[in-house]
Amino acid sequence: MNVICFSDITWNFLWQRQQQIISRFPKDCNILFVEPSFWLAAIWGIINKGLFRFLPHRVSQNILVCSIPTIPFGDKFNVSRKINDHLLIKGIKNLMKKYNIDKPVLLFYKPRYSCVINKIGESLVCYDVIDDTGALEASPNWLEDRIKFLKSNSDLIITSSENLYRKISEKRKDVFFIGNGVETEHYTKSDIPSLIPDEIKNEHKIIGYIGAIGEWFDFDLLEKILKRFPNFSIVLIGWVFRNQKRTLNNLSKQYKNLHILGLKPYQDLPKYVKDFDVCIIPFRIYELTNSVNPTKVYEYLASGKPVITTSLPELKKFDDVLYIAKDHEEFLINIDNALVKEYDIEKAIRLAQENDWEIKVSEMLKKIQDYAAKKSSRFSI
């Protein structure tokens, strides 16, 4: 099976659902992983001292990572956006020819690339909906049409949250819910070194967070945590988006118990989480997060750590394992409770195991194969 995955993140930025899934596809799958932007890939390559990592390169025997050159910032304008569409289609066709990719399954995470549909001889279009992209405050107005086009032209839609499933399945069939997961064994290892600096872990209990920090992050709640627990270390690990950097930097100047450790490699995350006393998900509750199924909750559980979260709809079904807060004050109380109450670590790890990526990928691969076979049989009649 040939697969072209249109990603919304570069391969080496954050290790997320798309990498977890396609890296578990059978080794006889020929996979082209298309990064979201040639220029973003180039900049990210320079930052990581891989100056030519924006050129096509293999990250495994069957996965080729690439990006397509387009007009920088061209998507902001209608005319240049159409030119970029042409460049993307042509670029994909050239890569398909060069690497012998025929009749691929298209796996979409980035709706912007929907311009290639019906242009490259695909055998199946699958849209894996991982968030309510249109609800992002930074989402451009023109993107909504691309999302609608992708949904209406997909043979198969998979969603990472039940709320997304309900919203999409109201309007069409061929929609399935396959939630996020965790590489359980990656987090359950006990014989791993700690990477938390000694000055942070030796003197204080640690309230920890791993993950990107963007518009969904509740900074008002973070400040209340910093004030309520001045003798605790509040540790944040992950990428901070540009619009949130100033706010976070201001808080770090005010509160000495805030430690911003930045983005860390996926393989090292368990070495940080192992020293967390409690793990937090301080997300704002609004349209975007109403459809979020955070991967980090499964990673926290696999680590056997108590989890305190705001009342994300997707997590309410786990209320017997998580500390779910309806407001800021209850969140703070829950941190106190999690530190003193006995925690059922085995139950937490068992829930993580039930959501292991191996299970999720098996479900997803079966759906793709079944729908590809059905579509092929219709055309062969």
Describe this structure in words.
The protein is of the alpha/beta class. It folds into 2 domains: 2-181 and 357-380, Rossmann fold; 184-354, Glycogen Phosphorylase B (Rossmann fold, 3-Layer(aba) Sandwich). It is built from 14 helices and 14 strands. The strands form 2 sheets. Strands 3-4-2-1-5-6-7-8 form an 8-stranded mixed beta sheet, sandwiched between helices. A 6-stranded parallel beta sheet has the order 11-10-9-12-13-14, sandwiched between helices. α8 links the parallel β9 (206-210) and β10. α11 (295-302) crosses α13.
CATH superfamily of the largest domain: Glycogen Phosphorylase B
Beta strand count: 14
Radius of gyration from CA coordinates: 21 Å
CATH structural architecture of the largest domain = 3-Layer(aba) Sandwich
**Which strands sit side by side, in order, in the main sheet?**
3-4-2-1-5-6-7-8
How is this fold's topology laid out?
Layout: E1 2-6, H1 17-22, E2 30-34, H2 38-47, E3 57-60, E4 63-66, H3 78-98, E5 105-108, E6 124-129, H4 143-153, E7 156-159, H5 162-169, E8 175-177, H6 184-188, H7 198-201, E9 206-210, H8 219-228, E10 233-237, H9 242-254, E11 258-262, H10 269-273, E12 278-281, H11 295-302, E13 307-310, E14 323-325, H12 328-340, H13 345-354, H14 357-380
Parallel strand pairs: 1-2, 1-5, 2-4, 5-6, 6-7, 7-8, 9-10, 9-12, 10-11, 12-13, 13-14
Antiparallel strand pairs: 3-4
